[in-house]
UniProtKB/TrEMBL annotation:
<feature type="active site" description="Proton acceptor">
    <location>
        <position position="219"/>
    </location>
</feature>
<keyword id="KW-0119">Carbohydrate metabolism</keyword>
<keyword id="KW-0560">Oxidoreductase</keyword>
<feature type="binding site">
    <location>
        <position position="43"/>
    </location>
    <ligand>
        <name>NADP(+)</name>
    </ligand>
</feature>
<dbReference type="GO" id="GO:0006006">
    <property type="term" value="P:glucose metabolic process"/>
</dbReference>
<feature type="binding site">
    <location>
        <position position="161"/>
    </location>
    <ligand>
        <name>substrate</name>
    </ligand>
</feature>
<comment type="similarity">
    <text>Belongs to the glucose-6-phosphate dehydrogenase family.</text>
</comment>
<dbReference type="GO" id="GO:0004345">
    <property type="term" value="F:glucose-6-phosphate dehydrogenase activity"/>
</dbReference>
<dbReference type="GO" id="GO:0009051">
    <property type="term" value="P:pentose-phosphate shunt, oxidative branch"/>
</dbReference>
<protein>
    <recommendedName>
        <fullName>Glucose-6-phosphate 1-dehydrogenase</fullName>
        <ecNumber>1.1.1.49</ecNumber>
    </recommendedName>
</protein>
<feature type="binding site">
    <location>
        <position position="297"/>
    </location>
    <ligand>
        <name>substrate</name>
    </ligand>
</feature>
<feature type="binding site">
    <location>
        <position position="157"/>
    </location>
    <ligand>
        <name>substrate</name>
    </ligand>
</feature>
<dbReference type="Pfam" id="PF02781">
    <property type="entry name" value="G6PD_C"/>
</dbReference>
<feature type="binding site">
    <location>
        <position position="214"/>
    </location>
    <ligand>
        <name>substrate</name>
    </ligand>
</feature>
<keyword id="KW-0313">Glucose metabolism</keyword>
<dbReference type="GO" id="GO:0050661">
    <property type="term" value="F:NADP binding"/>
</dbReference>
<dbReference type="Pfam" id="PF00479">
    <property type="entry name" value="G6PD_N"/>
</dbReference>
Length: 438
C-alpha cells in the first residue's frame, strides 16, 4: 500500500533534523519506497527548511511539499482535505511534531476532517504527552474520540535506540541471565542520561518541562521498564507492553527526600535542569533493590547508560587478601558509544594461585550500523507494529510515577557547568554506601 506522510510542524527542528532525514534515508536506501508524498504542514516556510530540502536527493525531494497550515484555522483543514482527495485508497500518516499545547486542536481538527475519509490512518504523537497525569488522560480521551488505539503511535525516540532494544534481547533471548536478574543477585541499578549541552535555543519549551517532564517521565522510565520488566508470555506487541505497564505500576511512590533537583549556573529560567533520585519497585523480583536515576544538562559529558550492579562477594572470603574485588556489572551504553560491557573479576598474571583478582571487561560492540532511532521507529510505524510505541495506559502510568515530583517545592541546588556529578547527587548514593558509575 502507498502511504502519504503529513508532518504537522513540518518545518520545525524535529522535522528538519530528524524526521525528514530519516524518511529520506529509508526511501533512498530502498528500505521503504511506498511513499506517495511527504507534506510539511506549518504556518511558515523557513529558509532552514528550504535549505534542508535542497540537501535531499532529487527523487526524495520530488515527494516533499510545503503546505501552509495553521492548526487553529478551519480553512487549513479544508485545504488539507483537498490534498487527501488526491490520496484515495492510500494510507495516511499524521505526525504531530509541534508544541504540545497545540496537540489538542490538531487532533480535533484532523479527527473531524478524517470522518469524511475511509483511508487507513495512523497518528503519531510526540513527547511530552501531556504535562501531568490529568492532561495525559484528557489527551488519550480526545484521541479515543477520533481514532482507535491501533491507529495511535505515541513515540519515544529512546526506544528506537539499538542498545536499549538490546536490553530486551540480552535478557530474553539468552537463558543465562534470567536466573540472576533479580533481588537475589542484583545489588542496585543505575540509569543515567547525562548531557553536556545546556538548553540553549530551547529555553521557552524547557521552562514548561524541566528535566522531570523532558527526560524522567519518558526516556528514563522507558529505560527502566526494559531493564526491570517481567518476561512477556510471548514475543507479541500487547504482551510486551502489558509487562512494561505492570512494572511501571509496581514503582513505589517516590520519596521526596530521595530526590535531588539541580539547575546549572547561569541558567536564567525557573525549571530544574537536573534530577537524581532513588526509587523502588515493589514486586517479587525487585523487592528492596534500589534503582538510581540521574539526568541533567550542561554536565561534563554526554553519557546515556544503564548499569546493573551485582552483589558483592562476602567480605570475609577475601579478608586475608589486601584487596576488594569490584562488583560485577552489566553496562548498556547508549551514548557516546553503543555497547554492552560485562565487568568480571579475573586472575592477573601472577606467580601464586591465591591472588587479588583484577577487573576485566568483555565488550560487545552493538553498533552494527549507523542508524538513527527515528529510522527504526518509522519502519515499525509503516509496518503498523506498536511494540515500541507507548500504549495509553503506559504513558498515564509514567505520569503517575512522576506526579509527586511535579508540584514538589523543588529548591534546586546550583551546579557549575561541566560538573561530572553534583555533590548532592553523589551523596544520594554515598549514604547508601554506593557510588555512581559515571
Ligand atoms: C529529547 C529531549 O527528548 O531527548 C532533549 O527533549 C534531550 O532535551 C534529548 O536532549 C536527548 O536525546 P538523545 O537521543 O540526544 O540522547
Amino acid at each position: 500500500m502507498l502511504w502519504a506522510f503529513f508532518v504537522i510542524g513540518g518545518t520545525g527542528d524535529l522535522a528538519r533534523n530528524k524526521l525528514l532525514p530519516a524518511l529520506e534515508k529509508l526511501y533512498t536506501s530502498g528500505l521503504f519506497r511506498n511513499l506517495s508524498g511527504v507534506y510539511a504542514l506549518a504556518r511558515t516556510k523557513t529558509t532552514q527548511w528550504e535549505e534542508k530540502l535542497n540537501s535531499f536527493r532529487p527523487e526524495f525531494r520530488a515527494l516533499c511539499k510545503y503546505v501552509p497550515f495553521d492548526v487553529k484555522d478551519p480553512n487549513s483543514y479544508k485545504e488539507l482535505g483537498r490534498i487527501l482527495q488526491e490520496h484515495k485508497g492510500q494510507g495516511l500518516i499524521f505526525y504531530l511534531a509541534l508544541s504540545p499545547e497545540l496537540f489538542e486542536d490538531t487532533i480535533r481538527g484532523l479527527g473531524v476532517l478524517l470522518r469524511n475519509f475511509e483511508n487507513p490512518r495512523r497518528i503519531v504523537v510526540e513527547k511530552p504527552f501531556g504535562k501531568d497525569y490529568a492532561s495525559a488522560v484528557r489527551l488519550n480521551e480526545l484521541l479515543r474520540r477520533y481514532f482507535v488505539e491501533e491507529e495511535v503511535f505515541r513515540i519515544d525516540h529512546f526506544l528506537g535506540k539499538h542498545t536499549i532494544q538490546n536490553i530486551f534481547s540480552l535478557r530474553f533471548s539468552n537463558s543465562i541471565f534470567e536466573g540472576v536478574w533479580n533481588k537475589n543477585f542484583v545489588d542496585h541499578v543505575q540509569v543515567l542520561a547525562l548531557e553536556d549541552k545546556g538548553v540553549e535555543g530551547r529555553e521557552a519549551f524547557y521552562e514548561t518541562t524541566g528535566a522531570v517532564r523532558d527526560m524522567l517521565q519518558n526516556h528514563m522510565l522507558q529505560m527502566l521498564s526494559f531493564v526491570a520488566m517481567e518476561p512477556p508470555c510471548c514475543m507479541e506487541p500487547e504482551s510486551i507492553r502489558d509487562e512494561k505497564v505492570k512494572v511501571l505500576r509496581s514503582i513505589r511512590q517516590i520519596d521526596p527526600r530521595e530526590v535531588v533537583f539541580g539547575r546549572y549556573e547561569g541558567y536564567k529560567g525557573k525549571a530544574e535542569t537536573f534530577v537524581a533520585l532513588k526509587l523502588y519497585i515493589d514486586n517479587l523480583r525487585w523487592q528492596g533493590v534500589p534503582f538510581y536515576l540521574m539526568t541533567g544538562k550542561a554536565l561534563a559529558r554526554k553519557l546515556t547508560r544503564i548499569t546493573v550492579v551485582f552483589k558483592e562477594i562476602p567480605k570475609s572470603f577475601i579478608s586475608l587478601l589486601d584487596c576488594e574485588p569490584r562488583q560485577n556489572r552489566i553496562v548498556f551504553e547508549v551514548a557516546p558509544e553503543n555497547k554492552i560491557v560485562l565487568y568480571l573479576e579475573l586472575r592477573p598474571l601472577a606467580d601464586r594461585f591465591i591472588v587479588c583478582p583484577v577487573e576485566r571487561q568483555i565488550v560487545f560492540d552493538t553498533e552494527v550500523e549507523n542508524k538513527e532511532p527515528y529510522e527504526s521507529l518509522l519502519v515499525d510505524l509503516f509496518r503498523g507494529d506498536q511494540t515500541l510505541f507507548m500504549r495509553y495506559d503506559e504513558v498515564e502510568t509514567m505520569w503517575k510515577v512522576v506526579e509527586p515530583l511535579l508540584d514538589f517545592p523543588k529548591d534546586p541546588i546550583t551546579y557549575p557547568v561541566g560538573s561530572w556529578c553534583p555533590k548532592e547527587a553523589w551523596d544520594l548514593l554515598k549514604k547508601d554506601g554506593r557510588e555512581w558509575f559515571v
